[in-house]
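Example record used in the benchmark description.
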Amino acid sequence: MTISCIGCGNMGPALMKGALSEDFIFEKIGFTDVDRLKADAAATSMGGTVYASNSEAVREGNYVFLAVKPQIFKGVLEEIAPAVKERLSEADNPLTLISMAAGWPIEKIQTVLGVKAPVVRIMPNTPSLISLGVIAMSASAEVPDQRIAELEKILGGAGLVDCLEEKYMDAVTGLSGSGPAFAYLFIEALADGGVRAGLPRDKALRYAAQTVMGAAAMVIETGKHPGELKDMVTAPGGTTIAGVAALENGAFRAAAINAVEAAWRRAAELG
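Model output (structure tokens):
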């Protein structure tokens, strides 16, 4: 089993580190990037190798992660297309391509490649860097169930892996893909509120981050609706309901909904 990662920004190496944390045996893990120093750094940190080209990464890998930006994705696909076709002609040499390019549906990827290659489309988010990510996954009909199960295990070290129909991928991009940035804004705003109320900056930021993390864990671990958990905190005439009213006066929910919708629409435009 060999894994190749084309692109060494944040997300590709993060998923590779997650894979190495799982009880899964790899013969080799390799990297390539337009910035050779980034590929060298990723390979060194994970005991991997650096490929001379993207095409070599395809020829060597069983699972090939395409961790490049949507804006340059087409060029990378055109570059590796001959190697993909070569690999697919070898019946005993399985290949699966894993794309994380926002706005690029599987059918369009296959069209650019010029072949019905086995393609898995994923949408991870940045908390994958600390193994707390969300990784949504959809697979083409050419991907066998066994490889989907193996890929779920490979990605499991980076966070929650969930399979869903590809038609939902742009919505996933808007919610969990972009969502961490929205959460960071909220944490920053909470901390600013704490500073305004007199807390030192370092303590305000620490308390805000821990509060958001704890609240998220409550939703996941209790299984209760967020509204029910909110009601548990909001005593009649108390401090929390005063704050909730202030958020509602500022159209907090509408702003959050609009943020996800805007990101969703932009994801659809990228394709």
